[in-house]
């Protein structure tokens, strides 16, 4: 038997959680695996940097109790004991005041709404928590559903600003099943891998390399071609060829790399819009918010839509006693903010902070960082699910699995892990 017959070769494009999970399954099944990653590190959207000697994600990350696939993977690689589940405070800034919104009692106390609307809000949330079948909600927008069942005022004060903060001008078009999943799957306890999620990515890369897989960093793929039963992938370093290829990059980027894809496939699946993520991370010498972890900014005139104080969730002592706050935005990828000099962005963001804590002074800032990521948030409109491509593509041996195929849940590490497990199984079953 030839070596190839004994051990098929599989290429994986992308070393985010989806690519690494699938690569782990291929390696466990005995395939020869090469992972090609454009960046100089693994992690994709969960790439991290160093604060006080500890890894910190460039964009805020946590888990929900319902993230079973991600929890199982963390346990599988031996890090399960380091996941902690605090119950941090979530609040909203409305009319210049902070309101906690963590419990049914908080909803009943939410004074910007009349009591009758608070009761409708609570009843709507309770319904979405118990409704197990999102298909019933298909075909309608979240905006229509919320106005009808929770009331127009609840939409105006609470959910409208939240939908706009995530989807901008698309806020009125977002599919109700997406909103269902946000309420249905959310838990009040949030999970974090102490020391940073990057520990999981590092561990996965180690396990893969020990098992003989090759993790190539700085290996941006330029083209994909399928010919004579093999798949050819071009990077700056040259051409690699495989029996099978799994691309975990956004569908639009995949379409650009695979020039032989048929027109009807492009027309059907190269659809929809995506937003990029922007985050300013401030490292402060003291806390900014009084115990609040997550603050939705529902007041107009702020340059960011959420303030997330990581060290009101994880202890500041994990970061050398420093306090960490993310100021986040989701925006069209051509938005002016992505092109502005970091110093200008920083000044604008800092000048808004006294509206959250009037005592804030710029002398509290020890470090600041600005991070940007394209293709960070799919825009889940009502017809979104009709344009999700299957994993098997028209190019023989080439498979596509990415976070833009997650539906109706909001993209998250858990769903990339689930998809990585599933697509690897599908590909392995079809290997000779
Ligand atoms: C602001 C923000 C907050 C989030 N919060 C949470 C959270 O709280 N909890 C949670 O679980 N998830 C959260 N997520 C989502 C989570 O980050 C993603 O769901 C997950 O990281 C997706 O992993 P992936 O492997 O599918 O994709 P990615 O991480 O995007 O990986 C794709 C990889 O492909 C590489 N690549 C692209 N093009 C090429 C090319 N041509 N050649 C080679 N490589 C290429 C990229 O560099 C990248 O490493 C958040 C995301 C954002 C942006």
Structure description:
By secondary structure, this protein is α/β, with parallel strands linked by helices. Helices cover 32% and strands 24% of the residues. The chain has 3 domains: 3-61 and 197-272 and 384-430, FAD/NAD(P)-binding domain (3-Layer(bba) Sandwich), CATH 3.50.50.60; 103-178, no CATH class; 273-378, Protoporphyrinogen oxidase, mitochondrial, domain 2 (Polyamine Oxidase, Chain A, domain 2), CATH 3.90.660. It is built from 14 helices and 19 strands. The strands form 5 sheets. It has a 7-stranded mixed beta sheet. Strands 9-2-1-13-19 form a 5-stranded parallel beta sheet. A hairpin with a 2-residue loop joins strand 6 and strand 7. Helix 3 (68-76) packs across helix 14 (413-430), helix 5 packs across helix 8 (176-184) and helix 6 runs antiparallel to helix 7. The longest helix is centred in the C-terminal third of the chain and has 18 residues, at 413-430. The relative contact order is 0.19.
Search tags:
7-stranded mixed sheet; 32% helix; binds flavin-adenine dinucleotide; Polyamine Oxidase, Chain A, domain 2; 19 strands; FAD/NAD(P)-binding domain; 5-stranded parallel sheet; alpha/beta; 432 residues; 3 domains
């Amino acid at each position: 038997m030839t070596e190839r017959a004994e051990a098929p070769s599989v290429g994986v494009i992308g070393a985010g959680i989806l690519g690494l999970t699938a690569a782990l399954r291929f390696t466990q099944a005995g395939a020869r695996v090469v992972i090609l990653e454009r960046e100089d590190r693994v992690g994709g959207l969960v790439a991290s940097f160093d604060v006080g000697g500890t890894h910190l994600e460039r964009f805020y990350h946590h888990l929900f109790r319902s993230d079973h696939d991600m929890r199982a993977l963390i346990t599988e690689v031996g890090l399960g004991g380091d996941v902690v589940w605090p119950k941090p405070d979530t609040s909203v800034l409305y009319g210049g005041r902070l309101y906690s919104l963590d419990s049914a009692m908080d909803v009943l106390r939410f004074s910007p709404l009349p009591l009758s609307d608070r009761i409708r809000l609570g009843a709507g949330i309770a319904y979405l928590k118990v409704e197990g079948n999102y298909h019933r909600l298909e075909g309608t927008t979240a905006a229509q559903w919320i106005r009808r069942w929770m009331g127009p005022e609840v939409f105006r004060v609470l959910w409208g600003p939240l939908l706009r903060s995530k989807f901008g001008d698309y806020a009125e078009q977002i599919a109700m099943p997406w909103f269902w999943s946000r309420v249905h799957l959310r838990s009040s306890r949030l999970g974090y891998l102490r020391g940073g999620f990057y520990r999981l990515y590092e561990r996965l890369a180690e396990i893969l390399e020990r098992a003989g897989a090759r993790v190539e960093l700085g290996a941006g793929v330029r083209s994909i071609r399928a010919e004579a039963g093999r798949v050819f992938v071009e990077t700056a370093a040259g051409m690699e060829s495989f029996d099978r290829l799994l691309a975990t990059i956004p569908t639009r980027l995949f379409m650009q790399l695979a020039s032989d894809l048929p027109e009807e496939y492009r027309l059907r699946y190269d659809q929809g819009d995506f937003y990029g993520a922007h985050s300013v991370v401030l490292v402060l010498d003291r806390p900014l918010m009084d115990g609040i972890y997550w603050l939705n900014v529902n007041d107009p005139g702020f340059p960011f839509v959420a303030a997330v104080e990581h060290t009101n969730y994880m202890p500041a002592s994990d970061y050398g006693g420093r306090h960490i706050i993310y100021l986040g935005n989701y925006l069209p990828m051509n938005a002016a903010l992505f092109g502005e000099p970091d110093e200008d962005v920083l000044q604008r963001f800092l000048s808004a902070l006294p509206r959250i804590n009037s005592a804030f002074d710029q002398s509290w800032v020890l470090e600041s960082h600005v991070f940007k990521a394209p293709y960070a948030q799919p825009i889940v409109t009502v017809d979104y699910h009709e344009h999700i491509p299957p994993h098997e593509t028209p190019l023989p041996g080439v498979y596509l699995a990415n976070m833009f195929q997650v539906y109706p849940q909001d993209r998250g590490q858990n769903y990339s892990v689930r998809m990585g497990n599933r697509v690897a199984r599908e590909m392995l079953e079809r290997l000779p």
